[in-house]
Design a protein that fits this description.
Largest interface: A-B, 57 and 57 residues
Strand order of the largest sheet of chain A: 3-2-4-7-1-8-11-10-9
Number of helices of chain A: 15
Largest sheet of chain A: 9 strands, mixed
Structural class of chain A: alpha/beta
CATH class of chain A: Alpha Beta
Oligomer: homodimer
Shape of chain A: globular
Number of domains of chain A: 1
Helix content of chain A: 25-40%
Strand content of chain A: 15-25%
Number of strands of chain A: 11
Amino acid sequence: MRHVVVAGIGQTAFGKFLDRNVRSLAEEALSAAVADAGVDYQQIGMTYFANALSGLVTGQETIRGQVALRNTSLMGSPIINVDNACASGSTAFHLAWLSVASGQTDVALAIGAEKLTHIDKSVTFGAFAAGVDVEERAHLQREAPQGHSVFMDIYSERARRYMESSGATPEDFALLCVKSRQAASLSPWAQFRQPVTTEEVLSSRMISAPLTLNMCSPIADGAAAAILVSEDVARSLRARRVYVRASKLVSANNDGDGPTCASRAADEAYEYSGFGPEDIHVAEVHDASAPAEIMLYERLGFALPDQGVKLLREGVTSVGGRLPVNPGGGLLSRGHPVGATGIAQIVELTTQLRGNAGKRQREGAEVALAECSGGQIGKDSALAAVTILSSFQ
Amino acid sequence: MRHVVVAGIGQTAFGKFLDRNVRSLAEEALSAAVADAGVDYQQIGMTYFANALSGLVTGQETIRGQVALRNTSLMGSPIINVDNACASGSTAFHLAWLSVASGQTDVALAIGAEKLTHIDKSVTFGAFAAGVDVEERAHLQREAPQGHSVFMDIYSERARRYMESSGATPEDFALLCVKSRQAASLSPWAQFRQPVTTEEVLSSRMISAPLTLNMCSPIADGAAAAILVSEDVARSLRARRVYVRASKLVSANNDGDGPTCASRAADEAYEYSGFGPEDIHVAEVHDASAPAEIMLYERLGFALPDQGVKLLREGVTSVGGRLPVNPGGGLLSRGHPVGATGIAQIVELTTQLRGNAGKRQREGAEVALAECSGGQIGKDSALAAVTILSSFQ
């Protein structure tokens, strides 16, 4: 497999943009990434377009990428639509990497765009449930209050189990949100940039105990894009080179026992890249809820089992800490336009590895990790993706 | 890139199965393909799952493959959901090929499953329209009779233009249907196996002139699967080896002028494989309507412009002819469970290249071509896929 370089990145701001559609968001992220890379549209040999919920939110099922990108010069090159729920963007990135690494094309595009806000909120909430098996969902929805994401019940149940085993408290989850907002306040792209206090987080509306509103990832619109190129092409471009050192996708086991797919994806990525958790300088992870980020510290090997909360309390994972996690604000504060999220993680980490992250920069960042999970099968996410990037090869 | 072998194939019968779901169809096709290949489920390193319309027909948006395959031993290996409208299965096949050709895995699965029939027919028809840009669709739907696929208006307009330029007549389109049913009558998998006469085709209900009901591809449920392996793995398996010689995906140009994406995909596949149209012994093409197949003879280089209808009239493309096209019945008679179709084409051609097609066998078949188009952007399909297979490397 050839070396692959992240040569261009771009994204829209994430937020509630009722007047914008998938096309307008995708076009903005794409043109930013193309300009950043300094490539021509005509060089892009393969496009992977990630979108999870347009079928149910906007009615555009199938050929979503071709519809979103039809006014761009990408038409004429293959556009492949992919979906793996919250890991859709990571899946697009993985396939773009594969197409360059394998020599199929020298320049590939991974782009994710999602339009979730709708004047009728029940459309958005209904679509969100689609990341769960339709049979399980019927059961969960009977249990859940109306207009309520079934995912938050799954997350709250996990949070309660984690509190029991680790001694973590709702105050810790609130602290995670404070950290998240602090980071987001330093990012121009984040949906929620207003700092919050632990008191504010704890007193926000209870969604599914112990999760309050601020502990749950919000609904957002947005798009993000990454252009991946071969090393030969990268040499002709101006940006500081960021290399893809591993890109692994792992699905849930059907027994639901043993390590989660996030753990297994991380192990595979560490093995493939030769890096270990101790080598990671900065990470972006799938904090669909505040406790999820803390549990991921353990699943990714940053902390021992039930010790993740210590990293948080000690400030290790804050901006300015040794291992900032979600310096871009994560899902909780950057926002979560589903298909775009996995690529927005890459945008943030590439910015960090280029040394361009301004006040949220991890000084000396050379190795970075992104983790994103998608959907729900039995007790685990349906799939997890782990990517490792570095500023050297 | 490594040589890639189609080592296992399987499919369900195609038809109207109101009592079956995507999972049941996918499981049947998968177990047939695994048994045919003689591989273990655990060897499958990567799965590409094609489905186009479940979001709108069954409500299962996102993680469709994980939901369909959750009771199989595939869980634990990556499952990637892809969609490119009618070319969804071809896209899954392309990516499975890429993952083996690139060395990412030694055994990959392409599987397509679609559940289209619904007790409420308007659900099915509504979903079908989703292969058209949502904005164009709104316009087309105002023009179309209720419960009517907007695609057939697009196809009928093309058919009328083709009749003008080529001199083809509705009788020719009826003859195509007679040929299609003749082939399907020899296949155990086809939805419509009852021979028809040109009179019956011409007198079936008018859908969108000149297209009668029999000239339009039907609604079907079904699944198909193909297991692709590296040449090393293939040597340990018992089946006669069928090689993937080219797998090309091409999107529509945004200007809509110049050659169609089917033509361009064919040109790329010929160039990549070193074969030309004169080398093809048997083909499966995207006959979403009867005239479409005739036009494809020209786009794929089997006939000169406006001369396609001659091949049909002379019996060249019938079972028993020099170049049988759609010996498996095509979309018109095998049926068209959207996500499964592109892989069902591969199933038929692999059967032909193994010499196992019984009464519909093209004697001496060594080189085969599959073409599948998906969606609609402006004047052209959104995307076309062309695959070339051969019984030798």
